[in-house]
Amino acid sequence: MARRSPPPPAEEPDRIAGFAHPRETHALWGQEAALTRAAAAIRAGRPPGAWLISGPPGIGKATLAYRIVRYLLAYGATDAGAGDLSVPPRNPDAQLVAAQSHPGLLVLKRGLNRAGKLMTVLGVDEIRKLSDFFGMTSGAGGWRVAIVDTADEMNDNAANALLKMLEEPPARAMLLLLSDAPGRLLPTIRSRCQLLALRPLDAVAMAPALDHFLPDMAKEERAALARLADGSIGAALTLAAGEGAMLAAEADRLIDQAQAPDLLALLALGEKLSRGDGLSRFGEFLAASLSARIRAKATAGAPALDRWAALQARVEQGFARATRLHLEPRQTLLSAARDMADVAGRAGPL
Fold first, then answer.
1. Which of 43, 75, 190, 226 has CB atoms 3.0–4.6 Å from 206's, for a disulfide?
2. Mean pLDDT: which of 89-98, 226-235, 255-264, 269-278 is highest?
3. What pTM, to 2 d.p., does this model score?
4. Angle at the Cα of 301 (from 336 to 337), degrees rounded to 5?
């Protein structure tokens, strides 16, 4: 079964190329605690006027928000729908949400400036749209829902305008504020919202998600992406673009073979990295993979990680310098492999 959606008619900054947008995504992976809390409040008829959905980028904040939206617009704050807030994709309200044409939904995010570039902040003019939207007569379902994605990007004027809306929330209306870093928001905004905190996914939750989204990718490549993505499905899918999965797997292989690197394979890899930004990207993957393994070992209480931590810093510096000075990729790889073999011989494998 195909997992990918058709290309969008226009580029969307919050869409990962080749994959469905969160408004089209019905599966929510590994966020059962937040989903259960939201479902209990909505189905009991007592949802808050505003939820602050927080967590690192790419872990499902927008996917959860659209799941809440579809349920409220289809069933209202009742127990008429499914206990997990799922709504059938063919439901008329779900189809209108996916088509960005539901009158009961307003999505606020950064727009484009006169030059067609994405603006750096979410401005007050966008937030002021809430007043007219919530002032309209409610639709057939009786609910109006607005998503602010992401609230962290509001400037001061926009934040103050949002605060006024939160101080006098309208009836049968809900605000869903998405935030990568809720500490950046005004304390008065945070205090007027109920928090739904999403957590990075562990390896057990990441595996079936990547199986679903990347069914044609080799298992070891998916595993490499999962380690580098730090619990974020969105980050893993972004890394998978182009040669990302291959580079991530090669970085893992170099670490696995640290004590006895395959020099011929490294020379062949160096040829591949000579094209475009391959050397820079591989250096980033290698440093990230080293960092992820060091954190995992430290959590498990493994000793003698200082040498590996120092190596990780040298790898970052070495690949950055090689990229800046356009040094030969094969020599950069061999130098990193020799350094890694020395550390593995002294401190043991990572």
1. 226
2. 89-98
3. 0.75
4. 10
